[in-house]
Write a structure and sequence with these properties.
It is built from 15 helices and 12 strands. It is of the alpha/beta class. It has 2 domains: 136 residues, Response regulator (Rossmann fold, 3-Layer(aba) Sandwich), CATH 3.40.50; 156 residues, Rossmann fold (3-Layer(aba) Sandwich), CATH 3.40.50.2300. The strands form 2 sheets. A 7-stranded mixed sheet has the order 7-6-8-9-10-11-12, sandwiched between helices. The chain is globular.
Length: 336
Amino acid sequence: MKRFISLTMLVAAVVCGMVCVRANADSSPPKRRVLVVKSRDISFYAPASQGFVKGLKSRGYGDTTDITILALSGDKNQDQQTIKAQIQKNNSLIFTLGTDATRTIAEAHPTCPCVFSMILDPISLGVAKSLAQPGGVFTGTTLQVSAGKQLDALQQILPQAQKVGLLYTDGDATSLAFLSAATQDAAKLNIEIVSKAMTPTTDRKAALEELAGKVGAFWLIVDPASAGPQALADTLDVAKSHKLPVLGTSSANVHAGALLALSANLQDLGDVNAEMAAPLLDGSAQPGQTSVRGPRQTMLSVNLDAASALGLTVPNSVLRLADEVVDSGAAKSGSK
């Protein structure tokens, strides 16, 4: 009889254990869902996207988080439908890269926390009331290294630069805000900004040719009319024919042929976004009360090949500060 009771108790204990394990499994919290939206499927957004994902994982949001990454196509109707479908899912947080992605998400009226990155002016874009207190569901980081710092870097190599030309999208609030600040910063360095507004019907090459006769350098700014793929190619082409240096927006511009760029370290910028996202995911912070941040690290890139073609000598003081130097001559001599 005792043996029967012991066996019964053993079976009961096993069954109870199985029920408890099942109960614990059923009670485990559901995975968080993070949606990452890039303005386009181009390499420009890759470092920040990678930095963000890596940063989340390093902060404990790896196995417990499903991360979905998508890119806008540029077709407004198609993109709106795609985002509408994604917004209806149970997102814990949305991370946007670039102006188009941020604007498209904002127009879909999300209710979950949203973190933006790689934009210039969130206030002009309408996703923040102020940098200190954004309000609403958005916060994030700006891409912008101050115009004054960029122009100062150009002057270190080209002290004779007095006029700098740039293109921008006509009526774009973000570019107009940047241009206003840039004009003030440039005046402190005795530099004049000569700008040309671009409309869909403006001939970019003709506009650049017009600027080339008035300025000593071109400046690419974060605006599709200025630094989009075709705009970059056109600017470099006209600059080459007139022997004008180009101040770029990123390391990629410098590798393409620009003389230099002082830009945000995009991988680190993504990590800053992850640092901001972590308390939003665990509920210990609210986006509307989380201050917008700027780049934590900047990156100076210099193209010695471009300098040589222009007959310029880059001071050693600049080279010592450079994070990246493009020099095919050094690569060739090193391979011998």
